[in-house]
Specification:
heterodimer; A: about 290 residues; alpha/beta; six-stranded mixed β-sheet; four-stranded antiparallel β-sheet; globular; B: about 350 residues; mainly alpha; 15 helices; about 0% strand
Chain lengths: ~290, ~350
């Protein structure tokens, strides 16, 4: 794991207390062992061995249709494995009761369905579902979790707004708030920045960073932008055709050779002028042609 | 609800947020519909060969006033009125649930095979010449048979449950064809009583039937209320619901079975009254917004009101003797369905 960059990770009193508070939390290590995932007869992920560090931010990247989202669905049990297992701190997630698992892992799907005319608060309250039983009334702990989720995502002032009338960035924050109210150690996000403009992409990624640094969440997210992945992730998983191409700290594994091999794009990898993390710069068209010829 | 509560709700509606406004609207409409329901119940109990005012009729229902009135109301009129109320409420709640679970505004017990199944069961029972009391039970059995067919398809085909509406339509048509075949083969008098049942009729209910049917519908409705959190989570789509600890496929099918049981029990009481289950959820959506736990009560009240009003039309306004109430609801419902289909382009579409 790389040391988080000071420019992003502001150390303040809140961070310090949060870190001590999470010291006795479980390790939150999500692992795949010989994992195979299929849609019908089509094998998407095959024989994948993976070990995601706990209490860190992991980004899963790869070309389109390489199985990134499928892998994420397998890791949260939305897909049953055709082979192998997924374990959380050593226990097979397919042997855990569904609600118990939902108290450990929260998910933001790629295309969640916003119920008609639902308000932000009503949406976020649904995140408490795994903590409730059929007849238990809404508790103070439930309300506290909802308030915290709203505050952390900056949605407190919009709590009574209808989600389907919000902007794309606000809507995404509302959905992240739902996952936060679920109060899980692990948070899995499937392409949380797709469909957002640059400012809202950065908003969401900064929020993810805060969730890790201040709230001690383990985050696993699927991302498209390699530069953003390198900036915000401690650990990078690169997939190609459903297999692992590379995994490790972005600064160590994200090389020009890897990007060219996986994405078939000749490029340079230079240090990000802002953060020093690897930045992928595709070669100009004329030089690409020359390189191939 | 009391008058101050209503005022409070109205005040919140003027000044507050959209949530408060929606709650206030729901509360205000619930009170209005409940008041209309009491009034109409009085009128229904008071109208007939022995005329009395709505107030006298309601008193008679409570056992007060003229003993002749009490007899007429309690023994002859009340069972029919009460079964209209119970069945209307049950059908409306079931319809609202079906539309949510299928994510399809055209889903209703009429379009997914449940009422066809109920008719099938009832007519089959008529054919065996069994006693009248067994008919509701047979209707329930038929409705559940349709549910099992549907559930079986859901399980086997691995088709998205939300697309099962089409399978339901096939089940409905198949069972309706079977019923028609039986009616054609029946001797004339049996055929006419079978016809009566299959279009929905409140004729000749007695207290035993009302108690059994009412208890069953109440139990089904209570179960539906208890499952509202689950339904709300399923509204988020299968991925989110899975992430929150549900098994979306299994839970959706189980909730559908529960809803179908509720619809069959209600249909068992009246026969398959068309369009109440389809129309009421849309009416409530127009009055108070999308379905939530809060609008469920209004849905039940509106369903009861609509069925009772239709029955009153049948009994006292339309000069055709022995017209089944289902004929009225269907006549009112057909244009409604057309309006709905035309409006569909403007309804919010939700992908599954």
């Amino acid at each position: 794991m790389t040391t988080p960059d000071p420019a992003i990770n502001t150390t303040n009193a809140a961070t310090a207390t949060a870190t001590t508070a999470v010291a006795d939390r479980p390790a939150n290590r999500l692992s795949a062992h010989g994992l195979g995932l299929r849609y019908g007869n089509r094998t998407v992920v095959d024989g994948l061995d993976l070990d995601l560090p706990g209490n860190a931010v992991t980004a899963i990247v790869g070309p389109n249709a390489c199985g990134k989202s499928t892998l994420l669905r397998g890791l949260v049990r939305l897909l049953d494995p055709a082979a192998g297992t997924v374990t959380l701190d050593g226990s097979d997630i397919h042997r855990m009761p569904a609600r118990a698992l939902a108290r450990r892992m929260g998910l933001l799907p790629q295309q969640p369905v916003t119920p008609e005319a639902v308000t932000v608060e009503a949406l976020v309250r649904l995140g408490r579902f795994p903590h409730q039983r059929m007849l238990t009334p809404w508790s103070k702990a439930d309300q506290a979790a909802v308030e915290e989720a709203l505050a952390r995502t900056g949605m407190t002032g919009l709590r009574d707004q209808q989600v389907d009338r919000l902007s794309g960035g606000q809507r995404q924050r509302a959905w992240i708030a739902l996952a936060l109210a679920q109060d899980t150690d692990l948070l899995l996000l499937d392409e949380p920045t797709t469909f957002l403009d640059l400012r809202h992409q950065i908003d969401v990624l900064d929020l993810v960073d805060d969730l890790h640094a201040e709230a001690g969440r383990t985050v696993v997210m699927v991302l498209h932008d390699l530069g953003q992945a390198a900036r915000y992730a401690d650990h990078l998983v690169v997939l190609q055709d459903g297999r692992l191409a590379a995994a490790g700290a972005p600064g160590e594994i994200l090389t020009a050779e890897l990007v060219e091999r996986v994405f078939q794009v000749p490029c340079q990898v230079v240090p990000d002028p802002e953060t020093g993390t690897p930045l992928v710069v595709p070669k100009a068209r004329s030089r690409r042609a020359a390189g191939r010829g | 609800m009391s008058a101050p509560a209503l005022e409070r709700a109205a005040a919140a509606g003027r000044t507050g947020t959209s949530v408060a406004r929606r709650r206030a609207r729901t509360a205000a409409w619930s009170v209005t519909v409940a008041a209309l329901l009491v009034l109409l119940t009085g009128v229904a109990l008071g109208t007939g060969q022995v005329e009395m005012t709505a107030w006298q009729a309601l008193r008679a229902l409570a056992g007060l006033g003229d003993s002749g009135d009490v007899l007429v109301v309690q023994e002859f009129r009340a069972p029919r009125v009460v079964s209209a109320l119970i069945a209307g409420a049950g059908l409306a709640v079931a319809g609202s649930m079906l539309q949510r679970l299928f994510r399809n505004p055209l889903a209703s017990p009429d379009t997914i095979g449940v009422t066809g199944g109920a008719s099938f069961g009832a007519v089959l029972m008529l054919a065996t010449g069994a006693s009248q009391e067994l008919i509701p039970l047979a209707a329930l059995g038929g409705g559940l048979l349709a549910a099992l067919l549907l559930g079986g398809f859901a399980w086997r085909s691995r088709m998205a449950v939300t697309r099962l509406v089409l399978v339901g339509l096939a089940v409905q048509q198949g069972l309706a064809a079977a019923v028609n075949l039986m009616i054609v083969r029946f001797p004339a008098e049996l055929a006419s009583s079978a016809m009566q049942w299959t279009t929905g009729s409140l004729y000749g209910r007695n207290w035993t039937e009302v108690w059994i049917g009412g208890t069953a519908v109440a139990a089904g409705a209570a179960a539906v209320v208890l499952c509202q959190r689950r339904v709300a989570v399923l509204d988020l789509g299968d991925d989110s619901a899975g992430g929150l600890g549900l098994n979306p496929r299994r839970d959706r099918v189980l909730l559908l079975l529960l809803t179908i049981a509720l619809a069959s029990l209600a249909a068992a009481l009246t026969g398959p009254v068309a369009f109440v289950a389809l129309a009421v959820p849309h009416l409530v959506r127009m009055l108070a917004g999308p379905p939530t736990l809060g609008t469920l009560g209004l849905t039940a009240l509106t369903g009861a009101l609509l069925l009772l009003a239709s029955d009153l039309l049948v009994l006292h306004v339309i000069p055709v003797h022995g017209l089944p109430v289902g004929a009225v609801t269907a006549t009112l419902g057909a244009p409604w369905l057309l309006v709905l289909m035309i409006r569909q382009g403007r309804l919010p579409q939700r992908s599954s």
